[in-house]
Design brief:
The protein has 690 residues and is an alpha/beta fold. The strands form four sheets. A four-stranded mixed sheet has the order 2-1-3-4, covered by helices on one side. The chain has a four-stranded antiparallel sheet with strand order 6-7-5-8. The chain has a four-stranded parallel sheet with strand order 13-12-9-14. The chain has five domains: 247 residues, no CATH class; 55 residues, no CATH class; 137 residues, FHIPEP family, domain 1 (Glutaredoxin), CATH 3.40.30.60; 78 residues, FHIPEP family, domain 3 (Helicase, Ruva Protein, domain 3, Orthogonal Bundle), CATH 1.10.8.540; 108 residues, 3-Layer(aba) Sandwich (Rossmann fold), CATH 3.40.50.
Length: 690
Amino acid sequence: MAVRSQAVPAFKISEYSDILVVLGVIMVVVMMIIPLPPILLDVLLACNITLGLVILMVTMSIKKTLEFSVFPSLLLITTLFRLALNVSSTRLILLHGYAGEVIMSFGNFVVGGNYVVGFVIFAILIVIQFIVITRGAERVAEVGARFTLDAMPGKQMSIDADLNAGLINEQQAIERRKEIRMEADFYGAMDGASKFVKGDAIAAIIIIFINIIGGLIIGMMQKGMPLMQALQHYTLLTVGEGLVNQIPALLISTGTGVIVTRAASEANLGTDLIKQMVNQPKILMVASAILVFFGLIPGLPKIPFFILAALIGTLAYSMQQSIQESVVQEEEEEREKELEEVKKPESVINLLQVDPLELEIGYSLIPLVDPKQGGDLLDRITLIRRQCALELGLVVPAIRIRDNMQLKPNLYTIKIAGLEIAEGELMIGHYMAMDPGMVEEQIEGIPTVEPAFGLPAIWVKDTQRSQAEMAGYTVVDLPSIVATHLTEVIKGHAHELLGRQDVQSLIDSLRGSHSAVIEELIPNMLSLGEIQKVLQNLLKEGISIRNLVTILETLADYARLTKDTDVLTEYVRQALARNISKQYQSAPGTVTVITLDPQLEQLIAESIQHSDYGSYVAIDPNLGQQLLASLAEETQRIASMGYQPIVLTSPNIRLHFKRLTERVAPGLIVLSYNELESNLKVQSIGMVKI
């Protein structure tokens, strides 16, 4: 019979790490109560020294403090471990006058069997640890925690700015925010954990005096030793025990100082020290010359200074040669890399990528964008995207902001798909003042034109702002000018920013709550591109697509009748009559319009021609010129009365009249009767005739 072997699962320490740590801490506490044999104490003392060395090497090897985020908790555990060793060794010294070979060796070999020398060395170690390292590390940790907490809001704003500018994605922003929180928690914990090291140093001083006094009492009164013998024996053991425990304590204190004094770095401590100190040949040359000068001074030893001068000079020369070789090598590698990139057919792919929306600024306008210099343009762009989402139902793509040295210092340009759409020029240190028609007193300023609407304006200095506002001017700061201009460009070209992927994202956002209409409409009735065309037609005339459910429901109702996206757009506009009526009211419940002469409407209707490429109006050129002239006259008259020019037509010619006039009046609003609610009062104050 074949015996099937059964695999035994391997034991993994990481799976039981939590239990092992808990047991370790419990055993440390038990050490303070239960006496330990000298051989076990020797092993634990060796472990303590090893642990101190490992911690010091780890703190010097990490690049970021968060790579050793467990250090504050580890500091508490190691302090508790040393105190437990102090208690165990003290118990053995006072009970048996012997605490293992490790303590005995430190008491005899390290300090030469002289308890006075040992006591002095121990005192020096305590002073170094307590006054120099521990106190300095404690202060650095305290200041580091304070500055880290103070810098948190600025770092959060910087992350939000990078996210809004499209430099990072949402996941990267979450990771950065998490890192900032962990950094603040770490320095806060280090501020408290450094007190453990300070307390450990104080406890060591107290324990050594207690051990010496207790040893003298036990040696003289219980064991009958002479004073000097008891002093020699117990003091050596106490000093040895203190040295054994203070050396790893000193190592860990040094590690504490190293980890709290590490600034931002891309390498470990050793690499940074060599790179930043030795990598300065000129400084090393000067140091070598100074050492030679010291060696020439009468009375000073010449050999040490000359030897050091030769070593440092040789090091400086070799570093200089190495730097020159590395520079030449980097230049050669860079040239080779450029040649390889040019030879690759894929090297031009990155040049084909264009951002959907860009804002390029001259170098004088950088303070408007930089939060460190008080610029809030990034925050305003965030508000612009929210405003467009609410008013148009459009998710504006990330706006890329770049500084362009080829632009004039005060100039900015707005680009869509890499092509310049608009530009404006600002004057740093000034405000733009515009006359809304109520200015009582003219003020002096530099004439200019408001870039978004082309209105006449003047530049006024900061000191003139209050005067201009009191005179009745509308005063606008520089970020508001750029934000307003950018908003108008987005609204005027919203249909160009809506791509198929954007439409897909909008539809996916509704799929969970309105899956029925989506499954019915796409792709059985209309394709994604046809829906995109309808939405673009709406945005082109300033109609919001935020009510996407109504738009899709209407398309599902009429897509069986026609696939013409222009006709479908007219059906959708009629379904959005409530939104359109509210949008163009001149007063509550009233819309003020210009109508067309019935004969003109009939003429346009009879001139509509249908072809395979769509419908168009074939009207006599002379009649077309008369129509456009009459339309311009009426719109100017209506605008002078303070009303927004709106032309009201019959539904069958609305689209054709809009296309007939959009070249000469692209911003003209053309509505049909079916796009206005029945309870809305229509006030006609003009008529277009030919």
